[in-house]
Design goal:
5-stranded mixed β-sheet; binds 3-methoxybenzoic acid
């Protein structure tokens, strides 16, 4: 059998147009918007010859792939490798890289551990930490906001909420970045991520052990479900690992991208300050306009179709969140504008369907805390140097964001 990127070579059905852009070219990853336009412009589904796979970027077909978990499965991996053919680079996630019925049980455990009630009980802690951080930022006036806000804030609240006793800041952020980079093709980013994970993984696995966690955190709640017999103790450890792979770098990106949006759109910042009830809808617009994750993969589990085009079993499909979230067919002619009062219902920054982000309540809680503190204390957020985007096979995040903060 001929393989490309660890999956079967496909012959696309007649009528599926070819995209001659490499979605994983580092220049494209750093500035993907022309690629998104081209992807949507060609049709609901396109063929990407270099990786012998299909891609979807129109809102309808992308949302359609995410919400049809019966045909577009996760259990064969959400990157380019087909787990049915080769050995995954790490033990697969028991929530991300599974289908029902396996998914149903682990999803239930995670949804309970990250419920709205859990997040509500954390809100005051988040608010206090956010206010203290914003005071520090204002005292400095100008900060490199990726490290000093986007990374620092989640690192100051999330590991504690999980129940980690010691926090390795660098490893926690980089682990998520590595797992997401590993979803890409066999390029520099993926190879370096896999090498670096060999260094980080022992620390992560040790941090997930039951006796290392505080008795009152999200991690302990997951282990309690093992005591109740719902999952095994080994599965509990794997789900705590998922909190660390999926819950840190994603929120770092969300907060960094939010700051970028407001520095780029000062009028939108003024609107938010004038009406704090816009904080929640504004973050939905950040997720639409500046999606922390740009792409997830799926595999056709059976012969199926996308928008009337036949798709063979075993075909890998890139579902391009960033393109769908900017589709003018869905969002209107101003889809490329950031508007805090858009209320973009249906944006897929958290994905969609049964695999839609299980941590979205806590992600929204963290972001609301930091934006609330900033809106109360900061009159203007200004660029203090050029923002630099970080090329990643799946994450859409800044590497460097120098900002100036003008007090209210
Ligand atoms: C996991 C995992 C890792 C990365 C992302 C994700 C967004 C989950 O290990 O379960 O979901």
């Amino acid at each position: 059998m001929e393989l490309i990127e660890g999956h079967r070579v496909i012959v696309p059905a007649k009528g599926i147009p070819t995209l001659d852009i490499d979605p994983f070219d580092e220049a494209v990853l750093a500035d993907p918007f022309e690629y998104f336009d081209a992807l949507r412009g060609l049709g609901p589904v396109v063929y990407v010859p270099r990786y012998s796979m299909l891609a979807v970027g129109q809102y309808g077909s992308t949302h359609g792939v995410f919400t049809d978990h019966a045909h577009f499965v996760s259990s064969r991996g959400v990157g380019l490798n087909d787990f049915k053919i080769g050995t995954p680079w790490r033990p697969p996630s028991i929530i991300l890289e599974v289908d029902p019925p396996d998914h149903t049980k682990t999803r239930r455990v995670m949804a309970r551990a990250l419920s709205p009630k859990v997040v509500k009980d954390l809100a005051q802690t988040f608010a206090t930490a956010a206010e203290a951080l914003v005071d520090e930022v204002l005292a400095k006036g100008r900060v490199e906001s990726v490290t000093e806000i986007a990374e620092r804030f989640p690192l100051s609240v999330f590991p504690q909420a999980v129940g980690l006793r010691e926090v390795h800041d660098r490893y926690l952020v980089d682990y998520g970045n590595c797992v997401f980079n590993a979803m890409g093709p066999d390029n520099r980013l993926r190879r370096e991520a896999i090498d670096y994970t060999r260094e980080i993984a022992p620390w992560i696995m040790a941090a997930c052990a039951r006796d290392r966690l505080t008795p009152d955190g999200i991690g302990a709640a997951i282990y309690a479900d093992a005591d109740a017999g719902e999952i095994t103790e080994g599965e509990a450890a794997m789900l705590v690992r998922s909190l660390l792979s999926a819950g840190v770098d994603t929120t770092v990106s969300g907060i960094g991208n939010a700051l970028f949006c407001f520095a780029e759109n000062p009028v939108e910042w003024d609107k938010l300050r004038a009406d704090p009830s816009l904080i929640k809808p504004a973050f939905e617009e950040v997720l639409r306009y500046s999606f922390p994750v740009h792409t997830f993969g799926r595999t056709a589990g059976v012969d199926t179709e996308i928008s009337g085009h036949p798709v063979e079993e075993g075909t890998k499909i890139l579902a391009v969140i960033g393109a769908a979230n900017r589709d003018p067919e869905k969002w209107g002619a101003d889809a490329d504008q950031f508007r805090v009062d858009r209320r973009p219902v249906g944006q897929i920054g958290f994905g969609a369907g049964i695999h839609g982000c299980v941590g979205q309540n806590i992600a929204r809680g963290e972001t609301a805390a930091i934006l609330t503190a900033l809106a109360a204390k900061v009159k203007r957020i200004e660029f203090d140097g050029a923002p630099v985007w970080r090329p990643s096979n799946a994450i859409h995040a800044l590497d460097c964001l120098p900002l100036r903060f003008v007090p209210a």
